[in-house]
Amino acid sequence: MERLLPDQIEQVRNALRARGILYARLFGSAARGAMSFDSDVDLAVSADAPLTSQQKRELIEDVSAIVLRPVDVVDFRTAHGAVFDEALDGHELFCDSEEAKAEAQYRRVTVIQDDLEFARQAFDSAKHRMFVP
């Protein structure tokens, strides 16, 4: 099992801040210190606005050059589902904006509410077929 070196983590922090990232978390195997030879590095980030495709690409290139591994970037402002939840449970790299962090936490609640509403609607539409007398 491999883990990122402290120097790499500091360089990643600096690279993310240089690109305007306000809040960042490391998640997945890199956060658990359980990377294998083919593991990628998973990052969840938040900036002033949702990241464009170009901004994500630039972050991926910058961080990949530091960690010498593939990198996946998740934007807290647009993420959904299990990956969003896993990212929030990861290791905090830095928080330069309590507002950005709070927004991510608030989105967790709204995403869960949206998922529950979808499940309720799906159940309502299927229950007449499930419970036939």
Written description of the protein model:
This protein is an alpha+beta fold. It has one domain: Beta Polymerase, domain 2 (2-Layer Sandwich), CATH 3.30.460.10. Helix content is 55%, strand content 16%. The protein has 5 helices and 4 strands, in the order H-E-H-E-H-E-H-E-H. It has a 4-stranded mixed β-sheet with strand order 3-2-1-4, sandwiched between helices. Strand 2, helix 3 and strand 3 form a beta-alpha-beta unit. Helix 1 (6-18) runs antiparallel to helix 3 and helix 4 (81-88) runs antiparallel to helix 5 (98-130).
| Secondary-structure element pattern, one letter each | HEHEHEHEH
Count of individual helical segments? 5
Q: What does the radius of gyration come to? A: 18 Å
Measured as a percent range, the helix fraction is 40-55%
Any low-confidence stretches, pLDDT <50, length ≥5?
A: none
Tell me about the largest β-sheet.
4 strands, mixed
Beta-strand portion reads 15-25%
For CATH, the homologous superfamily is named as Beta Polymerase, domain 2
